[in-house]
UniProtKB/TrEMBL annotation, chain A:
This is Small ribosomal subunit protein mS26. The gene is LOC113403847. PANTHER family: 28S RIBOSOMAL PROTEIN S26, MITOCHONDRIAL, SMALL RIBOSOMAL SUBUNIT PROTEIN MS26. Belongs to the mitochondrion-specific ribosomal protein mS26 family. Its main location: mitochondrion. It comes from Vanessa tameamea.
From TrEMBL, chain B:
GO terms for molecular function: structural constituent of ribosome. NCBIfam families: S16 (TIGR00002). Belongs to the bacterial ribosomal protein bS16 family. The lineage of its organism: Eukaryota, Metazoa, Ecdysozoa, Arthropoda, Hexapoda. One of its GO terms (cellular component) is mitochondrial small ribosomal subunit. The keyword Protein biosynthesis does not apply. This is Small ribosomal subunit protein bS16m.
Length: 211, 132
């Protein structure tokens, strides 16, 4: 069975209305809300009406003349085209073509010269840019090498105090002879009491009292 | 539905009436028109015979409404008896190709009248405010 709204909604492409697609279909009735609405007639004063009549008449007359002019021109052109296939007109056309070609070549040469000049300038600019980039890169590499050599020098200076297999025994002996205790305690006033086995003097009593 | 191509692929009968009309090619809230020749009794959804120009009714950054016209082809089609719709006739009138369309004159004088009325009203209001 065909649904009722199929034609109204125009979902079926076969029965599409050939008209402006954004309009309501012709067969739909006036909307309920608009059924007794009488549109207001535009009020045009007598004076304005006469003026409009006058300028419209003028316009129509002028337009008729313009139309006729272009129509006659079209007819003239047609007849001239028909007569243009003679030998003389062909010769004329060939001459004009030759002239056009010469002008075109002249322009092409001019443009080529301009292009060459522009290309030279562009090439120079490009070279300049590349050289600048190379210089900047070189500078950067030099800086890196300098920084690295400075680092190496510093390390070499420090290497005099390194422990090597030659002085390993001496270093062990030295370490055993001088034990260092890095442990320390810190109280609320910021006093540092170094060493793990340092005897605690005063705070001992307070702690006991609190406990 | 896709818009018809502007290149003018529309088929037509040589002796059927043609019309030079505006064809809306913009999108929602952005009108843009092609000025094209079509067969007179044909909807705008079909391909046109030829595009003769374009019209952008929205003022651009320089406060201009741009119109492009191919006057040579317009002359050709006028010579072949094409009809011109009023909006296009107005545009051509403002372009100096046709005489100024009566509707242009009418809108102009009506706009002037409303402006005069508004000015008079403002003046009255100002006078009342002064009195009060």
């Amino acid at each position: 069975m065909i649904p009722k709204n199929l034609f109204l909604k125009r979902s079926c492409p076969l029965i599409m209305q050939i008209a402006e697609t954004h309009r309501k279909p012709r067969w739909l009735p006036v909307a309920k809300s608009k059924i007794y609405r009488i549109p207001k007639r535009p009020e045009v004063s007598e004076e304005e009406r006469l003026e409009l009549l006058r300028i419209n008449n003028n316009y129509k007359t002028q337009m008729r003349a313009i139309r006729r002019f272009y129509h006659e021109e079209m007819i003239n052109e047609k007849s001239s085209l028909q007569s243009a296939s003679s030998e003389m007109s062909q010769q004329l056309e060939a001459d004009e073509w030759e002239k056009c070609v010469q002008i075109n070549e002249k322009w092409n040469a001019q443009v080529a010269a301009e292009r060459e000049q522009r290309r030279k300038i562009e090439l120079a600019a490009m070279e300049d840019y590349a050289l600048k980039r190379i210089e900047a890169k070189d500078k950067e590499f030099k800086g890196r090498i300098a920084r690295a050599s400075a680092e190496i020098r510093r390390e070499k200076e420090l290497s005099s105090t390194f422990i090597t297999p030659d002085n390993l025994e001496a270093a062990i002996d030295h370490a055993l002879a001088n034990p260092v205790d890095y442990n320390y305690a810190i109280d609320l006033r910021g006093n540092i009491v170094s060493g793990r086995d340092t005897p605690i003097v005063k705070p001992e009593k307070k702690d006991q009292a609190v406990a | 539905m896709p818009l018809p191509p502007a290149s003018g692929t529309g088929r037509y009968f040589a002796k059927a009436a043609k019309s030079i009309r505006l064809l809306r090619h913009g999108c929602t809230n952005r009108p843009f028109f092609h000025i094209s020749v079509t067969q007179r009794r044909r909807p705008n959804s079909l391909p046109v015979i030829e595009q003769l120009g374009s019209y952008d009714p929205m003022p651009n950054m320089d406060n201009e409404k741009l119109v492009a016209l191919n006057l040579e082809r317009i002359k050709y089609w006028l010579g072949h008896g094409a009809h011109v719709t009023p909006p296009v006739a107005e545009l051509l009138g403002l372009a100096g190709f046709f005489p100024i369309h009566p509707r242009s004159y009418m809108t102009a004088w009506r706009n002037r009248a409303t402006e005069r009325e508004n000015l008079a009203k403002e003046a009255e209001k100002a006078a009342e405010d002064k009195d009060a």
